[in-house]
Amino acid sequence: MSEAAEAALERDDPLELMDWILEFAAESDDRKLAENCCARLARHRNAMVRGNAMLGFGHLARRFGCLDAHRVKRLVDTSLYDGSDYVREQARSAAEDLMTFLAWEFDLPDDEPPDHEAHT
Which residues of 32-51 are buried (b: 16+ CB within 10 A; e: fewer)? Predict the structure, then answer.
């Protein structure tokens, strides 16, 4: 693991990590390292960090056109049902990117309230 990545993960500062993971996923030339960092942070105690890790998977899918399907799909599937609205929204965004760029399939939950005849 790169020294910068290792240091950021060791400091475990949520404010730093939520920005760092997005930048790292968008700019790292090492797909496997970036994917591993996103996977690790997808389980973080802080919802903003978890949500941004989901966005990181979307960035990686667009940039590299491949990810570890078994691991990443499971993390995104789980995050679609996270207790945090933010994590669920970012997981949905990631799932949409993964469907678009990697042709993966997801059973997305219906989070929209039912339309009762246009609220008449």
Answer: eebbbbbbbbbebebbbbbb
